[in-house]
Design goal:
The complex is a heterodimer.
Chain A lengths: L6 H27 L4 H11 L11 H22 L2 H10 L1 H21 L4 H12 L3 H10 L8 H26 L4 H34 L3 H21 L4 H11 L3 H27 L3 H32 L4 H10 L5 H9 L6 H25 L8
Helix pairs in contact in A: 2-12, 2-16, 3-10, 3-11, 3-12, 4-8, 4-9, 5-6, 5-8, 5-13, 6-8, 6-15, 6-16, 8-9, 8-13, 9-11, 10-11, 10-12, 13-14, 13-16, 14-16, 15-16
Chain B lengths: L4 E5 L3 E7 L5 E7 L4 E6 L7 E7 L1 H11 L3 H12 L4 E6 L11 H4 L1 H5 L2 E7 L2 E4 L12 E6 L1 H12 L1
Antiparallel strand pairs in B: 1-2, 2-3, 3-4, 4-5, 6-9, 7-8, 7-9
Chain lengths: 387, 160
């Protein structure tokens, strides 16, 4: 590979460099507008993909592998985000909002998939796309709007924790369905994943300090390589067991706790940004722009229904914390944005018969909700609070 | 002293809040990064905030300085006056203890001894009201409030 730094490599460098620069410009633009970069990356992917304005020559295999690593790092940082204690208390207190969230948000996506005439597997994936809020966008919106101190905020953050944990069950199911496994095998993979999550949660709570102490001592460089290596290794092993590589990476994130957790999160985040950008790009790279136009209508319809679902979820979650009408509406509107996780779920189905359509509808849906969600959070107000 | 309530914010940090004598509700958010936010709640909508101040670690120290040089000892004195039977003690963390590198929450000091850590003195600077995520380091001086027995247990625990 290194020896072949001939004309082909030169061309690849030029293309990758130009794309990275374009993404940098888009990231700055997004930062200036105060919205997430994900929709911009998706649009950039369309431009350089099949039928786009500037199709790339770089081998899809290469970008595909980098994109897969991006997924693993996204899931790793998600696992790193919460301490084992937070996950445990989230499970204890957030069951009712969590179940409400799953039912009212998964169902519209699933039904929409069936209405579009897809098979059940693709519909289950669209349900997942519709279900999960973007914890990245939600956390950023809360912080940007100065709402971290608000009384509804702990219930919102708790809901994000529950969604993450729910993914530990959902991702293996989705992966098993996509792989075409039978009911028995599907149940086995789910059981394996759930047991692994439980073991890691208990382990992190009891022995987390010692476990992390092992990694803690080395330099930043050693820690970065160790975490990166562990993530790919465990992800790969999980994939071998057909439990989905993503969940393996997520478990690595959960297992790290204590001081090393925050250090690892800081070290990995630039790497994650780089690889995840490639992932979003690659996702829409595979989508025909014509398909996306056709998917705008179903995507928008689903976005409207899904906005209602999140409003209801926020209403229930914040209501349980004794928050008033205005706060309950704020909670729902903040949760509307879908993002990275929805794209991760949709990308699982890339190889399905309906994979092309699923990708297009998911991209349209995320484009709409990731932009409109934060706007709704900013401007949706209760009609003057009753005094 | 008004009652301070603590709420964990998963993925963000901790929120402490209390109601001032004037009836305003105040909250301090301690981010995991050490950044703080000072928020004042809206009287019309008690769930939302009217003012949010973003404070770096430096800003926090400056503000604490301006508000009163030794808030910890003042608070402790107030607690002692109110509650007979409470004592305050200064414990230096020995180099060999197993708690080095773990956070206050992980040490479970309050669960084990009933004594609360109200401040940590490290290298001449005092950190009042350290969050549960605060790390314990060798030769830190831990300021704790509790019963005499609780404080003795804490001292024994740290030396073990």
């Amino acid at each position: 590979m290194l020896a072949a730094a001939g004309p082909e490599a030169a061309k690849a460098f030029i293309e990758i460099g130009a794309v990275a620069l374009a993404l940098a410009a888009l990231a700055r633009l997004a930062g200036g507008l105060g919205i997430t970069t994900i929709p911009f990356y998706l649009l950039a992917g369309l431009a350089v993909g099949k039928g786009g304005v500037a199709p790339l020559d770089v081998s899809a295999d290469f970008i595909g592998l980098v994109a897969e690593i991006g997924v693993l790092l996204l899931l790793l940082t998600l696992g790193l985000e919460y301490t084992a204690e937070e996950l445990r208390s989230g499970l204890r207190t957030g069951l009712v909002p969590g179940v409400t969230d799953a039912v009212v948000n998964f169902t519209p996506g699933f039904v929409a998939g069936l209405l579009l005439g897809w098979d059940a597997t693709a519909a289950v994936l669209l349900g997942g796309v519709c279900w999960v809020s973007s914890s990245g966008i939600v956390a950023k919106v809360l912080s940007d709007l100065g709402r971290l101190a608000n009384r509804e905020t702990p219930s919102i953050l708790n809901l994000l924790v529950i969604e993450d944990l729910a993914m530990a069950a959902y991702l293996p199911i989705a992966a098993a369905l996509v792989a075409g496994l039978g009911v028995g095998e599907t149940l086995t993979t789910v059981a394996v994943a759930l047991v692994a999550v439980a073991v890691i949660l208990v382990g992190a709570l009891r022995f987390g300090t010692r476990l992390s102490g092992l990694l803690e001592r080395g330099s930043d460089e050693a820690l970065l390589l160790a975490v990166f290596g562990l993530t790919l290794l465990v992800g790969g092993l999980a994939q071998e067991l057909e439990v989905s590589a993503a969940i393996g990476a997520f478990l690595v994130g959960l297992a790290l706790s204590g001081p090393v957790q925050h250090r690892a999160a800081n070290l990995v985040s630039p790497l994650r940004d780089l690889f995840a950008a490639v992932f979003f790009l690659f996702f829409s790279f595979q989508i025909d722009p014509g398909d996306l136009l056709g998917a705008l209508l179903p995507g928008a319809a689903l976005a409207i229904v899904a906005a209602g679902g999140k409003l209801l979820t926020g209403w229930v979650a914040a209501g349980r914390a004794g928050v008033g009408t205005a706060g309950r509406l704020r909670a729902g509107s903040v949760l509307m944005a879908r993002g990275e996780f929805s794209i991760v779920i949709a990308s699982l189905g890339a190889g399905l018969a309906d994979g092309q359509d699923l990708g297009a509808v998911a991209a349209a849906f995320v484009l709409i909700t990731a932009v409109a969600g934060p706007l709704a959070a900013r401007f949706l107000k209760a009609p003057t609070p009753a005094r | 002293m008004p009652e301070v309530s603590e709420t964990p914010l998963p993925g963000v940090g901790v929120r402490h809040e209390f109601v001032t004598a004037g009836g305003e509700r105040l909250a301090v958010i301690t981010h995991r990064t050490g950044r703080r936010e000072l928020a004042i709640y809206d009287r019309a909508d008690p769930d939302a905030c009217t003012t949010v101040l973003h404070l770096s670690s430096d800003d926090t120290r400056t503000l604490a300085e301006l508000l009163g040089a030794s808030p910890v000892s003042e608070a402790v004195a107030a607690v002692q006056q109110r509650l007979e039977g409470l004592a305050i003690d200064w414990v230096t963390v020995p180099a060999g203890t197993r708690f080095i590198g773990s956070t206050i929450a992980e040490g479970e000091f309050r669960t084990r001894t009933g004594a609360s850590i109200v401040a940590v003195v490290r290298g001449g600077t005092t950190l009042p009201a350290p969050g549960p995520d605060h790390d314990v380091e060798a030769s830190d001086v831990i300021v704790a409030v509790g019963t005499t027995e609780g404080l003795a247990q804490l001292r024994a625990l740290l030396v073990s």
